[in-house]
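A reminder from the course coordinator: this example appears on the midterm review sheet, so study it carefully.

Given structure:
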């Protein structure tokens, strides 16, 4: 009987002790632990970084305009040339002989035309004879211009100022009409052509701040840039729109060369002093975005209007007030009116995540 009494006493004691995870009060035993964060005012800015090589605004091909043999090449890759500089010489000895002959023919025709003019004025020859002499003179003059032009084709001149990026021929090479001999890069303006999402290109204009960094100079200050042009159409498969960024003056010690890999950062949107919550606080349902607000120890599901999302934070345009506590983790089985137990509030880093 003594053992039975002791057992009953022990059972009674256990029945008076709250079960693990319960609070005194019975109904509070279903409280769900959650982590919360306050709604706060922040400055949000959204940017995107894209990579593409540096390119000259124009690439110029220098072609041969005649059939011939290259006698001499006067430039190499990397040389800078000005408009009209001699780059190569072709064998034009045959054309030079033709030019000399046409000039001699022109001299004879000019003298004959001069005599015919005098005789025509003196009415010694007929009008038809005079016209025949004049036609021969004009033909001889045209032949001289023709051979002067062909002779000039043997001197390969730079069509514009730039840097020689490719030398395709050597002395002794045979060339034909329209064959590429050199390639020039016009470095008066360097550009970077990046591919921008159709979702981001709508926020671009010539006023958008652009920063350009070169992998070749990882520790150097960035190069200023500007949106020079936005191409009129997107790629039908990738939905990307080419955007051309013009590079400004590089900082001291930085030499920008075509082909360097550039990282272009475009500042697309920014808002200041706006209400924001961490991204994990936002839920979506059939009626749109919502958050769970903790009032005392009870959940209230609140519909919200969101705006800019940047750096792990979401702008709240309507639906919350500054300082209200929203749930940022522990969403499992949460319902309107649920009782919650606020755990230690997590530390929200600059990206809006909860480590």
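Designed residues:
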């Amino acid at each position: 009987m003594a053992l039975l009494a002791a057992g009953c006493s022990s059972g009674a004691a256990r029945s008076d002790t709250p079960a693990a995870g319960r609070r005194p009060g019975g109904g509070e035993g279903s409280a769900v632990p959650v982590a919360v964060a306050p709604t706060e005012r922040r400055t949000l800015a959204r940017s995107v970084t894209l990579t593409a090589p540096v390119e000259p605004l124009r690439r110029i091909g220098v072609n041969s305009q005649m059939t011939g043999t290259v006698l001499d090449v006067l430039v190499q890759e990397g040389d800078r040339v000005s408009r009209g500089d001699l780059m190569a010489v072709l064998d034009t000895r045959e054309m030079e002989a033709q030019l000399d002959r046409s000039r001699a023919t022109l001299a004879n025709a000019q003298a004959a035309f001069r005599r015919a003019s005098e005789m025509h004025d003196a009415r010694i020859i007929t009008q038809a004879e005079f016209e025949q002499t004049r036609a021969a003179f004009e033909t001889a003059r045209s032949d001289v211009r023709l051979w002067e032009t062909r002779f000039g084709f043997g001197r390969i001149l730079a069509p514009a100022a730039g840097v020689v990026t490719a030398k395709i021929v050597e002395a002794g090479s045979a060339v034909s009409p329209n064959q590429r001999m050199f390639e020039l890069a016009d470095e008066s303006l360097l550009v970077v052509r990046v591919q921008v999402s159709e979702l981001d290109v709508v926020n671009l204009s010539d006023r958008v701040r652009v920063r350009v960094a070169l992998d070749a100079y990882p520790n150097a200050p960035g190069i200023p840039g500007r949106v020079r042009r936005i191409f009129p159409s997107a790629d039908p498969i990738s939905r990307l729109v080419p955007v051309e960024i013009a590079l400004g003056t590089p900082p001291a010690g930085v030499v920008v060369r075509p082909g360097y890999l550039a990282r272009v950062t475009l500042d697309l949107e920014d808002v200041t002093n706006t209400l924001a919550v961490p991204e994990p606080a936002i839920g979506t349902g059939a009626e749109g975005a919502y958050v769970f607000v903790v009032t005392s120890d009870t959940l209230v599901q609140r519909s919200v209007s969101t705006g800019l999302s940047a750096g792990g934070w979401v702008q709240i345009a309507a639906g919350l007030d500054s300082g209200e506590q929203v749930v940022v983790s522990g969403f499992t089985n949460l319902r309107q009116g649920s009782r919650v137990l606020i755990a230690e509030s997590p530390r929200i880093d600059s990206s809006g995540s909860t480590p």
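The CA atoms of residues 45 and 233 lie 27 Å apart. The helical segments are 2-15, 93-121, 127-152, 198-201.
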